[in-house]
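Final report, Chapter 2: Outcomes

The project's central promise was a pipeline that accepts a single protein chain and returns its three-dimensional structure in a standardized token representation, suitable for archiving and comparison. That pipeline is now operational. To close this chapter, we reproduce one record exactly as it appears in the project archive, with the input sequence first and the structure output second.
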Amino acid sequence: MASAAAAHTWTPTRSAAGPYSPWLIVVIISLPTFMEVLDTSIANVSLAHIAGGLSISNDEATWVLTSYLVANAIVIPISGWLSDVIGRKRYFMISIALFTISSLMCGMAPNLTTLVLARVFQGIGGGGLAPVEQSILADTFPPEKRGVAFAAFAIVVIVGPVLGPTLGGYITEHSSWHWIFLINVPVGIIALGLTEIFVDEPEAIKEERRQLYQRGIRIDYIGVLLVALGLGFLEITCDRGQREDWFASGMIVTTAIISATSLIALVFWELNHDEPVVDLSLLKNRNFALTILVMATTGMILFGTTQLIPQMLQQVLGYSALDAGLALTAGGVATLVAVPIAGRLSDKIDVRFMLFPALLVQAAALWNMSRLTADISFGDAAMARLYQSIALPFLFIPINAVAYVGLPQRKTAQASSLLNVFRNLGGTVGISFSQVLLANGLQVHQSVLVEQLNPLNPNYTDWIQNAAPMFGGSGQPGAIPDPTTLAVLYQQVQRQAAMLSFLDVFHALMIVVLIVSPVALLMRPPKKGQGGGGMGH
């Protein structure tokens, strides 16, 4: 028991700070991660401009998003293993360099093929940044200070996707779509230089790598292949499913079968492999398995609503891409204000009693969104997002603080990879789930509303009589409505049906959060001075 507890006790021997302040390291490693997270959403509002610039269709332009997400999804789960084999600092710098060079290629791409290929390499480079940063933070800060450290990581992961559409819309409208990629280049060069100078590769990690080489590195080729097939095709299935009419499409059926078969095989293979590329045995730890579930839910809510709110404002209220993005900015400000508070509290109080109320607040915020109307103002939309965003740091920071309880310190890289995998998978499923509900809800609500448009409905006849004179019709009782009046009425029906569909999605997400929220109370809080951090078994 004593040896087991010692294995789980945090020690500073794996710190990346070296002779420098740990907070300097936080700033340096957060720079490239912020740009990578930003790139998951920055191109969303620029697709029409990219399509026009490259003379392609809007549907073809969506591969700019899909290619990046697929590459990202494949690399993230194996980034912990790559970090162990290549060396944490070296792998982090390789990822920065690849992300920066491929960003330059994206910005200079003359055609779709080049752009998609560059985005694949950008996703490969970016996929290793967030897990390695998380691993460095877990090793550099003791458990009692880890909450504040992860507050900085929360700013990167939460605010990045929020600012992406706003920044992308601004750059596209005032310059060119090329610059949504080119802005990464100077940041990447600076981050690469600062990492080389200030980030340390501790002797303990070097020794672990030497021992790994002495034993002989056995590459889990089958594991890598199953990860690539399982997560890559899952990303394609979720990202393209709605556009391809889901299982009515042969392509989606094929990608779904390959993904499901590969992921099932991956679980059996990795649990029975001596040196797995993805250490699924970590899920046997109760705390880690529960935090994975809450993290996936957080990703679902964060990415799902980040796409839904601008989409609602553009489709229903007629906002521009930039104005829709600006409506999210209040939420970003609220997050920035709440992050240091959440970081301080997570180091002082039982994280379970932060997570559970935060999930309830998140559910209340989604309930509030489900009560919006098609007549809301910009301020109403911004405040609805603000209510939701306040709770996000109180979810994200405690999750990261409690995730490592009971795990050996040498497993932080693998644990960080899995946390990021499930955050991204939650986001992917959340977006896909939302779009399915949205499309189905639109058809149902439109059908119900159209049934009410008949002369037996007094509201219908009153509206026709009042509106017809405005569009050149007679408006007299019994008169046949003119086509223009009917067209305007149908447009209003579509608008109301769309709004009702968005409200249904927010309500469904609220139910998901309420179902998951009791899980927070089942977690074990970290004990002071233990971690890797946390409690031994």
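Archive annotation: Residues 412-451 form the longest helix (40 residues).
This record, like all others produced under the grant, will remain available to the consortium after the project formally closes.
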